[in-house]
Structure formats: structure tokens, C-alpha cells
Amino acid sequence: MRLLDNAVWAALAGPHARFAERVGRAARYPADVYAFAALADPADPVAWADLCTLVGAGTTVRIKGVDSVPGGWVVVGGGEGVQLVDTGLRAEHAPETVRLGPDDVPDILDLVARTRPGPFLKRTVELGTYLGIRDKGRLIAMAGERLTLPGWTEISAVCTDPAYRGRGLATRLVRAVAAGIRERGDTALLHASATNTQAIRLYESIGFTLRRRTRIVQVRTPGTDHGAEAL
Prior knowledge:
Elements: H1 7-12, E1 21-23, E2 26-28, E3 37-39, H2 45-55, E4 60-64, E5 74-86, E6 98-100, H3 105-115, E7 130-135, E8 138-149, E9 152-160, H4 169-183, E10 187-193, H5 197-205, E11 208-220
Parallel strand pairs: 9-10
Antiparallel strand pairs: 1-2, 2-3, 4-11, 5-10, 5-11, 6-7, 7-8, 8-9
């Protein structure tokens, strides 16, 4: 369970190492895959120095699970999230779902723009299995796998077109994604904004348990800003 306290690092140092851009004790996903970086130990000044080397001076970067930042770093934004783990979910495949891939990215991004489930970028679909439900060809709901760390896989991008809500599509998709996760011998987890109480209640009602709250920070590295964008 300790891996879950630093899930992004555990993924980048483990099953998602193929995506990792890394310097020493700091790593990040490519900016078009998942816009987060991670530290092997957020209390280690060396890890922060490695992160500065990795992303460059004056760059804004997002990190999870950080309580404080070293001198010279500036917190420019952030929020609070929650982490939930599967303790009693009924996982089952759903025959109405379809596997989504790179060719479906335009439809995925269109659905994301309509529903705003959280960050989803052009290559996020490469992180794991994404399933969708279509109605007359139009993508109306989806869910998939984002972080993968030893023994655990995160379910993410759970969203339903507003016109189709109230039909249980999100629940069916979460159970279907979880079925694939269990077949690999992993356990499902979820992250959500702490303010998204409706989603948290839904996840708890179908078998997830709130494990912890976590802080998400957006920080700017020390040094001169050379026009670097947020990562």
C-alpha cells in the first residue's frame, strides 16, 4: 500500500518506465501523455534538484503528494484530491463497450471537452486500456486505465455525455475496466478531486473505499523563466 502514497513515481519507476523522462530521483511523463512529474522522495532536496535539471529553470510543473517545497520554488496553484481503492467492486465485462485507441482520440477529446473528467491529452490513450460506449457512432461515455504501478492500476477519465447520464453507463464502464485489471492480477484505484463529492459518493456506493487525501501542487522551478510552459 505504500506505493500508493507516491503513485506517479511508482508508475514511472515501474510499469510505465517506458514513458519516463528521468533525471536521477525525478521523473515526468511526456507533456502530451500525462502532465505530471514525480519525486522518488518529496522530502529529499536532491530529488528537487534533479527535477529542476529535468524540466529547466522557470518552468511550471504539477506534482502530487507534496507537503512543502524547497526555498526558491514558488507554488503557483494547486488543490486537494482523494484516492480510493477497490475493496468490494463487482467487476464484470460489458458487451456493449468498445476498445478505444489512437484513431478514436478526436472523439475522446470531444467527449472530454463536453464532460471535463480531468486531464486527458493526445497520447493519454497509450497508458492502458480505454473502453467506450457509442450511440449511433457517437462516443457518449468512456473510462480507462491511467497510472499502472506494481499490483495496482488506476481507473481514470470516467465520463458520460450529459444527455445520457442517469443510465448507469459510468458504473458499467468502471466495472468493465476493473474486470480487465483483475484478470492481470492487479487491484483498481481511483483519484478524484476532493470537491467532486458526487463522483466520490458514486465510487463508494459501488465498492471503492476512500484511502487518503492528497495535495496537488503546481510549482515553478527556481531561475529565470525562458517562456517554458506548464508541464
